[in-house]
Design goal:
By secondary structure, the chain is mostly helical. It has one domain. The protein has 14 helices and no strands. The protein starts with a helix and ends in a 5-residue tail after the last helix. About 30% of the residues are buried.
Length: about 325
Amino acid sequence: MRYVAQLLLQHLREYPAWGFYLALGLFLAASIWLRYAVGVSPNVAAWPPNWLGQLKGLAFNAFPYFVTLLLYSAFFRRWDFWQRPGFWLTTAGVLAVVHFNQYVPFYRPVYQNWPYPWWEWARKIGYNLHTTLFYLLVPGLFVWWDQSLRPTRFFGCTAQGFYWQTYGLLLLLMVPLLVWASFQGSFLRAYPRYRPGVLEEMRFYSSYLTVGAYQVSYVAQFVALEIFFRGFMVMALGRYLGGGAVFPMVALYCYLHFNKPLPETIGSIFGGYILGVVAHYSRSTLGGMMVHIGIALLMEALAFWQLGRPKPD
C-alpha cells in the first residue's frame, strides 16, 4: 500500500491544481446525477445502425473526453498538445475503440441466426469477444505503425514494476465492500453477467460448461480492457499529456460504467484513477489486470452465492 500511496502523492504533487479536481469532480457528479436520478441513458444508438444514432453514440463518448481535456488545459495552462497531429490520431483511436465496442455490435448477425436457446449465451459471449478484439486491435495497430510505442511492452504487459503483494492487499480490502454490495437489490439485477437458463434446460448442457466458457471470455475482456484504458490511453496519450493522460481516461471510464449499478460507477472513478496513476509510473498494467479480474470474479461468485442462498419466508 505504501508503494501505491507514494505514486498517488507524486502524481498529486505534479498536478497540484485543486480547482481542477473540484471542477472535474463536479462534472462527473453532475453526469452521474443525470444518468441515475434523471435517467439519461447511454443507449442512444439503434440497431441496425443509422447515422443519427451513431452520431449520438460518438458524441456521448467524446463529451467527457473533451470536457476533461479542456479543464486540464485551462487549469494547467497546457494548450500545446491540441496542435499536435499525433494527439488527434491517438484521440481518434481512443474514441473509435469505445464507439465500436458500444454502438457497432458486429457479432449480432452471428448469434441471431442461432437456435433460440443459444441467444442469450451467444450474445454475451459475443460481446466479450467483440470488445476484446477492439481493445487489442487498435493499440496493436498503433504499435505496428509507430515504433516509438514499442518500448511500452505492448502498453504495460510487463512484470517490471508489478508487485503482486500490493494488489493482493487491495483485493483483500475490497472483499467487505463487495459482500455488502451483493446484498443490494441493484446488484442481482446486474450480476451474475450470465446465469444458466433456457439453454441449459432445453439442451441439457451442464451449467459448469456454459458458465465456465462465459467466464473465460469475461476474463479475456478485462485483460484487454486494462491494456486499452490503463495502457493505451495512459501511455500513448501520455506522450502529449504526461501524467495528465490519466484524467480523460478516468472520465471516459466512468461513462463506460453508466449501464452498471451506481456504486460500481462511483468506484470506477477512484479505481480508474489509482490504477491509471500506477500504470503511468510503473509502466505496467499487470496490477490493474489482477485487481480488475479479481473483483469481477468475486462479484460473479457472490452473485451465484446470493442466488443459491435460502431466502427468508
